[in-house]
Amino acid sequence: MLGAAVTALAGHAVPAVSAVAPLRRRLWPDLSGTGRPDHVALTFDDGPDRRSTPRMLRALAEADVRATFFLLGAMLDHDHALGREIVAAGHEVAVHGWAHRNLLGRSPWGTYTDIARAHDLVSRVTGTEPRWYRPPYGVLTGAALVACRRLGLRPRLWTAWGRDWTAEATPASVYREVTGDLTGGGTVLLHDADGTGAPGAWQATLGALPLLVAWARERGLTVGPLGSHRAGSPPAPPPGRRWRPPARPRAFPDRGRSRAGTG
Ligand SMILES: [Zn+2]
């Protein structure tokens, strides 16, 4: 992940800044996922994966917590049923793109088709309209912003992460990393699959989950999905209820329209 941020620093100011959490929090609180101060948004990237995601779903059910899963189209395409299980358990599904590739190496059209293909699969398979997009490695480009507007997606990154993709990660290290940066209104990035990290790294995440939920609750913070993160947003549904995003007008209903007015 840091490698991506360093690459980005080579000459692309916006993606570089977007990948550095403290700077981003200050400059673009919305993009960082800053929400109401009594709430923490819990998000998982890189799944779904039959080897690990069901374990995360069970731990979340035991903790009585709903979260947002940023799905990779390529992973979901292997296991449509698992995408439906995530939604049936009351969680929110969102778009992490089709392939886990740094967007800096992609053309505007390649970027659009990657995000649109994942968006369409997530919608079709889970029966819910995804609202959020998170780019691989947190590197957001102008082309990705254009694609998001056309697809009705809002980009959301994070304010705290667990460094839970490394071979050295343990439940204690993930807990330390997250709580070192997390405050009320923050968005936590974790991973429910190890496809882009060290094999089995998700086990550290799994062990850290109940500790993180307890940490938040001791501070009077509610843990939930991004859909419940803003002031005035509805609370997360009770366990076992499908996530239903509230109806909203689509900003760009016509996908064939020209990309006027954006970079
Ligand atoms: Zn990722």
Automatic annotation (TrEMBL):
Which Pfam families does the entry mention? Polysacc_deac_1
The record places domain NodB homology at 38-224
**SUPFAM superfamilies registered for this protein in UniProt:** Glycoside hydrolase/deacetylase
Which domain of life does the protein's organism represent?
Answer: Bacteria
Q: Which InterPro entries match?
A: Glyco_hydro/deAcase_b/a-brl (IPR011330), NODB_dom (IPR002509), Polysacc_deacetylase_ArnD (IPR050248)
Q: List the PROSITE patterns hit by this protein, alphabetically.
A: NODB
Region Disordered, annotated ranges: 224-263
UniProt name for this protein: Polysaccharide deacetylase family protein
